[in-house]
Amino acid sequence: MEIDLKYLEEVFHKHNLKITPQRIAIYKELVNSKEHPSAMIIYERIKKIYPNVSLDTVNRTLLTFSEIGLVRIVEGRGDPKRFDPNLRQHHHFRCIKCGEIYDFYSEEYDSLDIPSELKKKFIITSKRVNLEGICDRCRAKRG
Predict the structure, then answer these.
(1) Which terminus of the chain has a smaller tally of CB atoms within 10 A, N or C?
(2) What class does CATH assign to 5-83?
(3) What is the DSSP string of the chain?
(4) What CATH architecture applies to the domain 88-142?
(5) Quick count: other Cβ atoms within 10 Å of Cβ 50?
(6) What is the pTM of this model?
């Protein structure tokens, strides 16, 4: 995926963040990932280019990216946080065997009605459906 560096510069400037080679590399690695990587996965890939970068720096950078709206954190149970650069409305399926997370799109899920008791109590800012089960690869392994 091609990175729009001008857009990235604008977002960084808007949030008073310095543009560093490490931040750009972390963002590129995340956007080009075919998965929903954790900070550790990004760190393992980035340290080959920037051997002095720490796991803490990668983690804090990813959390900052989340706070400023460049990425989203994918919810998981007990696992390390996973990050998603896909900001289009979509949902997730997580395999309970291998832990892989798959994006899927559904207009029906996008338009789910929020229960009135939640609308009264909370301000809803987004809707995401998270499904869990066994992916086709793990199902095939079970034979």
Answers:
(1) C
(2) mainly alpha
(3) ----HHHHHHHHHHTT----HHHHHHHHHHHH-SS--BHHHHHHHHTTT-TT--HHHHHHHHHHHHHTTSSEEEP-SSSPPEEE---SS-EEEEETTT--EEEE--HHHHTPPPPHHHHHH--------EEEE--HHHHHHH-
(4) 2-Layer Sandwich (3.30)
(5) 16
(6) 0.80
